[in-house]
Amino acid sequence: MVAVLFITLHAGDLHAQNKAGLQGVDHVGMNVPDLPEAIRFFTEVLDFTPVTQIGPVPLDSNWKKINHIQPGTGPVTIRMTRAGDGANIELFYYDQGQGSKQQPGADDLGASHIAFYTTDIKASMACLKAKGVTFLGEPFTMPSGDTKGETWVYFLTPWGAKLELVSYQDGKEYEKHHPAVRLWSPRDVTSIPLVGDTLSHRQLQELAAAHLQRWNNPDVAGRLATLSALYANDVAFVDAGYVSEGLQGLNTFISNLQQQHPGFRFSLARIDANHNTVRLYWNYGDKAHPARVKGMDLITVKNGRITSLYAFLDAVSK
Fold first, then answer.
1. Contact 221, 127 (CB under 8 A)
2. So what's the pLDDT on residue 186?
3. pTM for the full model?
4. The sheet that has 49-57: what strands, in order across it?
5. Which is it for the CA torsion 230, 235, 238, 241, positive or negative?
6. What domains are defined for the chain?
């Protein structure tokens, strides 16, 4: 009886102790045969951002043994990249790597791929094709089943690794049945939920990063494909000499601005909010003078998207 009572009283604790406490995918690792080539592909082609680097780190014989690394393989260099609003991608380069140089086939053990979400798969595909990316066929839309409504297509890195574009702007079939658990999606990450309170510090930082990333993106088609994840389709944009409504008008203004000021980039000065109204102060300039221009965007957030954006120019230095 005592034992039964003890188990009953502590069942919740035992259940908690049996949970690993994992919160989600932090990063995905990928071995690459040429690190500079891989970094160029993820930055110049996919528009991701390399952040941290470790190495070259020599590997001792014990580490090689327990990780099934060939004895003759040299030091490893590891570069972590920020892949949009999804998990980070960790690139591993082994100097004088003695492992297999053959990419695994689709049915081989250890075969894997990374899928990247886009709001416009045709525009993203056209953009990547223009940069020389090879696709394995045409986009396919699932006609039935749990993933009905999802469109996907595979493509290759320069070294032959398989990646994927995927899109489902209207959701997937299983979501219509109100499941208790929904699959995580970067489609939802750049939305800024607000329920009767001011945006949190974390939400402000995420909004600033997403907003400035799009304004710094020089790829016209690729940028347009990502705008709807952050801005409402009928977003109002007002500048001293330009007024537009909709994503295309906003994209056109960004393109014109970049053409007028080649090499200039936006950076965050500070950001604050009062309920759903945000003041984002920015600097704009080149590497030599990153704050040549200073200004502020007055942003309104509604239903998880930026619905209006008023740009104010504060100062221009010579």
1. yes
2. 76
3. 0.59
4. 27-31, 88-94, 76-82, 49-57
5. positive
6. 27-98 (3.30.720), 113-184 (3.10.180.10), 201-316 (3.10.450.50)
> 187-243: per-residue pLDDT in tens?
665 555 554 457 777 778 888 888 998 999 888 877 887 788 889 889 999 999 999
Mean pLDDT by 10 residues, the chain (318 residues): 38 56 86 94 90 92 92 94 86 92 87 89 90 95 92 95 90 81 72 60 82 89 81 93 94 95 94 90 94 95 88 88
Distance CA 208, CA 30 (A): 29
User: Is residue 297 within 8 Å of 277, Cβ to Cβ?
Assistant: no
DSSP string covering the chain: -HHHHHHHHTHHHHHHHT-----S--EEEEE-S-HHHHHHIIIIIT--EEEEEEEEE---HHHHHHTT--TT---EEEEEEE-TTS-EEEEEEETT--S--SPPPTTSTT---EEEE-S-HHHHHHHHHHTT--BSS--EE--SSTTTT-EEEEEE-TT--EEEEEE-TT--GGGGG--SS----GGGTT-B--SSSPPPHHHHHHHHHHHHHHHH---HHHHHHHHTTTEEEEEEEEETTEEEESHHHHHHHHHHHHHHSTT-EEEEEEEEEETTEEEEEEEEE-SS-TTSEEEEEEEEEETBEEEEEEEEEEEE--
Q: What pLDDT is recorded for position 150?
A: 93
Q: How far apart are CA 33 and CA 2, in angstroms?
A: 62
Question: Which two three-digit tokens encode residue 203?
Answer: 């939400």
How far lies 174's CA from each of 27, 79, 110, 116, 168, in Å? 26, 37, 28, 20, 12
